[in-house]
């Protein structure tokens, strides 16, 4: 039996964003981190970083654009959601929905209207209008699958004879490998493993640490 390693995010140190948070145990994770009992540590979602300044996990910020004289850097998510560039502002996070750009302050509203015209097609609640590609898109790291924005499916492990492949979030939430089940989504909070049917709960109890 073996524990398949999950894909992990290549951490980047951005401003005050720390790639390695202070680890806690069990259910005492800081901010919006979650306890990952299979790895015995608190972690952010696979596409996000821990920010010591904000005390929360979030997508890394866009790189500040290089602006010409008289221009300022701004970030925007929609025609009503924009802000002067600030790496700690949620509209500046590089999540696949936001954009960073330069313009003169007096031309900001015109620029926003150009990027997010009122007549663009409506997007699903889990999507957002991407002004660059001019279409509705899922959040960064997710794909349109089964009519929803989901993380890619984890790789199915190769199991020995009489063993089956399983996915698990913790010792109480697991399923036999199924690419349509969210327990098999590669969001950094779950794992895959091989086990005989009769020994699944024993494997989970043995490999999960914490409450």
Structure description:
By secondary structure, the protein is mainly beta. It is built from 2 helices and 16 strands. It has helices spanning 108-115, 200-207; strands spanning 3-4, 17-18, 34-36, 41-43, 49-51, 56-58, 72-78, 81-84, 99-103, 127-130, 135-138, 143-145, 148-150, 164-168, 174-176, 191-195. Strands 1-16-14-15 form a 4-stranded antiparallel β-sheet, with helices on one face. A 3-stranded antiparallel β-sheet has the order 2-5-6, with no helix packed on it. Strand 7 (72-78) and strand 8 (81-84) form a beta hairpin. Mean pLDDT is 86; it is low at 1-25.
Distance between the termini: 23 Å
* Secondary structure category: mainly beta
DSSP helical segment count: 2
Instruction: Give unreliable regions as ranges.
Output: 1-25
Largest sheet: 4 strands, antiparallel
Helix-strand sequence: EEEEEEEEEHEEEEEEEH
> Helical proportion?
under 10%
| Average residue pLDDT | 86
User: How many strands in all?
Assistant: 16
Strand order of the largest sheet: 1-16-14-15
Shape: elongated
* Rg, Å, rounded: 21 Å
Strand content: 25-35%
């Amino acid at each position: 039996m073996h524990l398949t390693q999950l894909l992990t995010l290549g951490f980047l140190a951005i401003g005050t964003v720390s790639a390695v948070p202070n680890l806690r145990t069990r259910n005492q994770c800081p901010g919006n981190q979650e306890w990952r009992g299979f790895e015995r540590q608190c972690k952010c979602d696979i596409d996000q970083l821990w920010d010591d300044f904000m005390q929360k996990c979030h997508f890394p910020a866009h790189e500040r654009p290089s602006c010409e004289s008289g221009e300022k850097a701004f970030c925007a998510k929609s025609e009503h959601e924009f802000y002067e560039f600030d790496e700690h502002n949620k509209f500046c996070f590089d999540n696949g929905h936001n954009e960073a750009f330069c313009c003169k302050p007096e031309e900001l509203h015109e620029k926003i209207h150009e990027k997010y015209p009122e007549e663009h097609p409506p997007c699903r609640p889990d999507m957002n209008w991407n002004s660059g590609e001019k279409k509705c898109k899922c959040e960064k790291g997710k794909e349109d699958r089964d009519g929803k924005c989901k993380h890619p499916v984890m790789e199915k492990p190769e199991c020995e004879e009489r063993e089956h492949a399983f996915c698990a979030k913790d010792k109480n939430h697991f399923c036999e490998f199924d690419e349509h089940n969210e327990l098999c989504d590669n969001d950094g909070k779950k794992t895959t493993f091989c086990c005989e049917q009769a020994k699944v709960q024993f494997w989970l109890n043995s490999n999960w640490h914490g409450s």
